[in-house]
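Practice problem: predict the structure.
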Amino acid sequence: MENFLDSSSKNFLYNIIEKILRKMFEQVIDEASQGLNERAEYLDIKQLSSRYSMSVPEVEQNFVKDKRMQMIEKRKPGTSKGKRYWPAKEAIK
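Answer:
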């Protein structure tokens, strides 16, 4: 029963199966990363700190003072000194 396919046919089938599995895995990974991006719509300074394994002062010095980060910075509505947030997609670029 095992010998009804020659080696070239087996290789052909293995290649097809491998391509199908790769596409399935890529699709699952893309969906998972999209879900993560949607859940982390905004990041605060503590999340940036843990994401980049830096202390909060290091994040402030290296990221928050950057003009690009200041342009996308959001604050608690109605205040100019509230907690700071950054849109995740733009902040991670």
